[in-house]
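To whoever is covering the structure queue this week,

Two jobs came back overnight. Logging them here so there's a record in the thread.

Job A:
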Amino acid sequence: MSATLRLTGPLHDGLVVMAASTIETGAVLLAHQLTLDDGTVILLGDDLIAVPDDAYEIRTDRALQITSDGYIHALKTARNRGMIALWVHSHPGNRAIPRPSIHDRSVNEQLEPLFGDRTETDQYGYLVVSHDGGALTFTGELSGQITTPITRLVVSGQRWVFRPAYDAPTGADRALFDRNIRAFGDGIQTTISGLTVAIVGAGGTGSATAEQLTRLGVRSFILIDPDTLSDSNTTRVYGSTPAEVGRPKVEVLGDHLERIAHGVHTTRIQGSILTEAIARSLISADVVFGCTDDNAGRLRLSRLPYYYLTPVIDCGVQIPADQDGLISGVFGRVTTLHPGAACLICRSRIDFALAEAETRSAEEQQRLEKEGYAPALRGVEPAVVTFTTLVAATAVSELLERLIGYGDTPTPSELILYIHDRILRGNIEDPHPGHYCDPATRQIGTDTDMLLGLNWAS
């Protein structure tokens, strides 16, 4: 069993500042703890509370000693918020080794019962941080009934970081990914190969996205789609053939991805993320690509980054026509959702009336349409493989941009493709004050009673 620590950009920056200090520095990290069905632990970082200057008794480049005033207030805050507390301290110096020393382990033994008791969680954790040329390095552990190593640190913000613990085995297949590595180096390729990516929607856009990610090196997928393959789907769905019409789309796509490369593992879920159990499966993903064309699904995906620090890249294609049936334009959209960026609601990308209609039974929706109380659901929308593939490639490129940072700063959080005019435009929109995507509302890990803060059908 292992643990992953997820952080916002500002929390990660705070740890980097600690690690870069020339003298040892201490702090308490507050986090919500989740344990998934497979035993994997996810820690959602909420706050980093520094040790006050007057609480240090000894503080040099090799030693640290503080009074209880350095952490008691933080433990009280953790208890009031229902979180666990991790003791964090630095080992100064570029490329210093962030392993706990004999003295560190003695301190951990002393702090463990105190932290567990004062937070009323019976849990204790520690993190030792250093840096390698400004990049954070760390080791860490959770203690309680079971000792769990913190093997991975994930950061979701302007840039995305997926970093293994110090001394963790790394390395990519240099022969297979030689051209990728020449473009962006061993480290990024190793990161890509370690990702678990969820694809919501296994149609034209979703299948093109999944195939490109597989060829980039992603080896773990969660595929979600309720539908079976139709005749018309074969013109757009990658890996499909007429012989597979009638099979679940997730099975068609999963088989295809596993044929592309050795070591690809696909978890296939035939169903809708409007179902709570299926929506919960997204929590374990490192990145989610929203390739669904329904408003109700997007309504749920839009909340994921702000409650679970799981970034979402939502995309779609629109080919509107005038009243005579003539195409008036071809548009694509790729919106990157992460803490600090506006959600789909703040961007007015969701039609609430249609989202509500999509959750009703067919009989109820037909009745309300006839009575004039509900908008008609959209019929079959136009779709063309070249356009869905173009949008998929743009979405996958946004993942690379967040990992590598090769583009403009600040990075646009949404791209609009005016395909008919051969124009690409980016924009940045901040969260609306007081909305769930506003960092000030502190939604991270708060949905213990209602997943994503929503009501779910039984």
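Job B:
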Amino acid sequence: MSSTNAPGPAGPVVVGTDGSEPARRAVLFALREAQVRGVGVRAVHAYGSGRADPSDLGTPSWPRTSGALPTHLHDVVAREVTDTVEELRRQVGEPFVEVEVHCERGRPAKVLLEASQDAGLIVVGTRGAGVWGRLALGSTSTEVVHHAHVPVVVVPPA
């Protein structure tokens, strides 16, 4: 007699967000995909890695006095992400999916990859690169695509 293991529940859709228009498009895609899959969304925002890094474009540059973001500033960043995601969740409409907001200091790609350990899908936006916009991905999306252990969707610019 053999037993078949039913597949376990699908993991959440993890989406990178930094408040930019490409990130908003990625969040919209993630919310819609989560509806189809019947899973939640984990909205991930990485902030100020503490060094000049092209992948930190669009994120606040916080002072590095203690090596950690002061609690009240972390709360401000988390609230901004939560407000943006909630606005987009209402725009997508029912059935509403559960959303978890995850804000952490570090390089965006590294934070996204760490937050996706139990994910079923990672979604990132890309700004494109000027003339090369349709031929090249940004540094964060490129790193995520190359190092992810689950499927990745890169939402192109409008």
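Note for Job B: The beta strands are 13-16, 41-47, 99-105, 121-125, 152-155.

Please reply-all if you pick these up so we don't duplicate work.
Q.
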